[in-house]
Design a protein that fits this description.
about 25% strand; globular; 8-stranded mixed beta sheet
Length: about 200
């Protein structure tokens, strides 16, 4: 019987991606809902890493399970790095993905293609119930499109307006397996997988 790894997020888009990214790790992947955990950890950290650590440690202590959490953000060069760690709350509390995308595009109105560079950053924290934490990072560079592309079942968050220049497609236009090869979350998760293999054997 494999030990459990708690995916410490209520974001179903992230759950779907992690179940794909972590295929093959020697753990049973479980969600907060499956474990009956309703705790919501406030992201009060001053950085992506602080928030990822906070979520992973809090939920590992509560669940007594090895827990994986992340914090990720979109950083737009023309906006001085906004929205950054505030990406999920950029358009206000309770805003939908569509609201956030619309607000971002409104902030970038009139900015030409050559000045729309951006990057996605992801920090993953894996915490043990005893408080040991491992941190992994990944980033992906691209640019913000003038309008959403690929809105629908694929992607979430800012994916419909984040374009990968090497593919000339937004994250939301890519099949999940292709997105995972290029994405910030995919890069961080590949690093995490190597440590998870070791943790399973310890």
């Amino acid at each position: 019987m494999r030990p459990k790894l708690l995916l410490a997020t209520n974001n179903q888009g992230k759950v779907r991606e992690y179940k794909s990214l972590l295929q093959g790790v020697p753990f049973e992947l479980v969600t907060l809902a499956e474990e009956g955990i309703g705790t919501v950890v406030d992201e009060v950290g001053e950085s992506l890493e602080e928030n990822a650590r906070l979520k992973a440690c809090t939920l590992a202590a509560e669940s007594q399970l090895l827990s994986l959490a992340d914090d990720s953000g979109l950083e737009v060069d023309a906006l001085g790095g906004e929205p950054g760690r505030l990406s999920a709350r950029y358009a206000g509390e309770g805003a939908s993905d569509g609201d956030r995308v619309s607000y971002l595009l409104s902030r970038m109105k009139g900015i030409p293609r050559e000045r729309r560079s951006a990057r996605f950053r992801c920090v993953i924290a894996v915490a043990t119930p005893g408080g040991e934490v491992h941190v992994f990072t990944g980033e992906c560079r691209g640019f913000i499109t003038l309008e959403p592309r690929g809105v629908g079942k694929r992607g979430f968050g800012y994916d419909p307006v984040f374009c990968l220049p090497e593919l000339d497609k937004t994250m939301a236009e890519l099949p999940l397996e292709v997105k995972n090869r290029f994405s910030h979350r995919g890069k961080a998760a590949r690093e995490a997988c190597r440590v998870l293999e070791k943790l399973a054997g310890s």
